Amino acid sequence: MKLTKKLFFSSNIIPTILDHTNDGINVVDTEGILVYVNRISANYVNQRPEDMLGHPISEFYPDAVLLAVLENRQPILDKKIHFVPPKKYVVNSYPIFIEGEFLGAFSVFQDIQEIDQLNGKIKHLEMQVSLTKPEADYQHVVHMGTMQHIYKQAKKIVGSLGGPRHSIITGESGTGKTMLANLIYNYAKEIGVIGKNAPFIEINCAQFTNPDIAAMEIFGSVEGAYTGSKKKKGLFEQANGGILFLDEAHTIENYQSLLLKAIESGKIRRIGDTKEIDINVIVIAASTKNLHEVFLPELYQRLGQYEMHLPALRERSLAEKDQLFRHFVRRYEEAVWEAHRIRYHVEFTPEAKHAVLNAVYPRNIRQMRDVINYSIDASSPLIEDVGEKKEITTVVGIEHIPFELTPEQPAAEPQPEPKEPEQLITPQIADFILEQSKCGMGPRKISHQLEAMGVSLPYYKVAYFLKKQSKN
Ligand SMILES: Nc1ncnc2c1ncn2[C@@H]1O[C@H](COP(=O)(O)OP(=O)(O)OP(=O)(O)O)[C@@H](O)[C@H]1O
Predict the structure, then answer these.
(1) Which InterPro entries match (predicted)?
(2) Which of 170, 240, 258, 275 has the fewest beta carbons closer than 10 A?
(3) Using CA positions, which residue lies closest to atom 25 of ligand 1?
(4) Which overall architecture, per CATH, does domain 319-408 show?
């Protein structure tokens, strides 16, 4: 037998093909009774097609778009439906007219849960990147107090008539050294000291366990300079015409004389090479250490005349901290707008804001930023629960702040709910928490376990209890 058009349409091939598509298909008569369901659609609602036929579609798909199509006799396209969250599909539905007579409707739908979740993850990652990127534009940094004075100094270093000069930035981790280097770079471009497309090459010298590898990265190498070394352009060459930012510069101890020579002569030599290469690079060396004590005196003298020190967060005024706080909250709101086109309003309760502003941050502004982002994350709704809303307000309370911060507050300040955990924690619950903690469980896991046992005790209260126990 030969497959012909006639045979194709008269046989059972079409339903078989429809069972092998990736889309779900439903066909109903004018009463909304299912006359055809493909396998995908039946699987979607955990049924067999034969058990669905002859039943109203609403029994299986309560929000079926087909019902509206039956009423209006018009197609409905690209409608997104949440089935049972997080199950989600997008559906196109059409009326069926045969020889002008209205006979029913059909719909074709695609499961988009996975695509939606992937999109959500991409947006989440994009948001994380945007929230943790150092500010590069002076308009967008907090420039009251500390930065006002330091930025003036930085501008002089690159912008003075006799400049630009190399410089040193010191400060504890997370105080804004990389950010300041970026600001200098942008300012230098703005005033034409370096070209609009000039490179900004950043290297954290501490990332190399071996000082020889660090040197090869910075100065480049020729093949065979060391066992296995390849011909390689160094960062100095890559930064030619722009800025070379050497973070954690104290770790390049062994190669300080090479650095000095490069800075003094404007020439570098790749490790293992004899040929010199001209370079025109502004070097900014940053460190958490006092480079005066670490660098060769000549190198320090060359760079350290132009030294800027960024104070730790604890040394900054409350007003400056408050500005930083507002800045990071605003950045979060802007990131939500960028990712989801949702106007997001973040409010902190006075108690929560007090906790954030008065906590101790060993990792300085970076840690404060992370705590603010974490707290807002904790109070924010899930994307899947937002629906079509275009404006949302969230209130960050003390319960959203990472627990380590709250006990660090000044003793003179009233502690939030200090007695409550003890009131809630019976001797049995106390024993349970201590036992789980001994087995290495963290407060969050313990709180989840308690919840499964019908005891509602937020993780931060578990943490507070454990902290008190460890002090007793
Ligand atoms: N004045 C400021 N205004 C706004 N954001 C700031 C300010 N100072 C620092 N930050 C932000 O704090 C975070 C940490 O800053 P940065 O990465 O520059 O610190 P760092 O001193 O280079 O840290 P590390 O020594 O660990 O490399 C960044 O997100 C940065 O943008």
Answers:
(1) AAA+_ATPase, P-loop_NTPase, PAS, PAS-like_dom_sf, PAS_4, Sigma_54_int
(2) 275
(3) 173
(4) Orthogonal Bundle (1.10)
Per-residue burial over 234-251, b = 16 or more CB atoms within 10 Å of its CB, e = otherwise: bbbbebbebbbbbbbbbb
> What separation in Å is there between the alpha carbon of 177 and the centre of ligand 1?
6
Q: Relative to the CA of 180, which ligand 1 atom is closest?
A: 18
Q: Which helix (H) or strand (E) holds 286?
A: strand 282-287
Q: Which CATH superfamily is domain 5-111 in?
A: PAS domain (3.30.450.20)
Per-residue tens of pLDDT for the chain, all 472 residues: 788 888 888 888 888 899 888 899 999 999 999 999 999 999 989 999 999 999 999 999 988 899 999 999 999 998 878 777 677 889 999 999 999 999 999 999 998 887 877 887 888 788 788 787 777 777 777 877 788 889 988 998 888 877 788 999 999 999 999 999 999 999 999 999 999 999 999 998 888 777 777 788 888 888 876 666 678 888 999 999 999 999 999 888 777 888 888 888 889 888 888 888 999 999 999 999 999 888 899 999 888 878 999 999 999 988 899 999 999 999 999 999 988 888 999 999 999 999 999 888 999 999 999 999 999 999 998 877 777 788 899 999 998 998 665 444 443 343 343 344 445 677 778 888 888 888 787 887 888 777 766 677 877 788 878 877 876 6
Nearest CA to ligand 1 atom 29: 134
**Interface predicted TM-score (ipTM) of this complex, two decimals:** 0.97
Q: What angle do CA 57, 62, 68 make, to 5 degrees?
A: 75
**Under CATH, what is the fold of the domain 146-314?**
Rossmann fold (3.40.50)
Judge if the beta carbon of residue 327 lies within 6 A of ligand 1. Answer: yes
Helices first, then strands: H and E counts in the chain: 21, 16
Q: In angstroms, rounded to a whole number, what is the distance separating the alpha carbons of residues 368 and 363?
A: 8
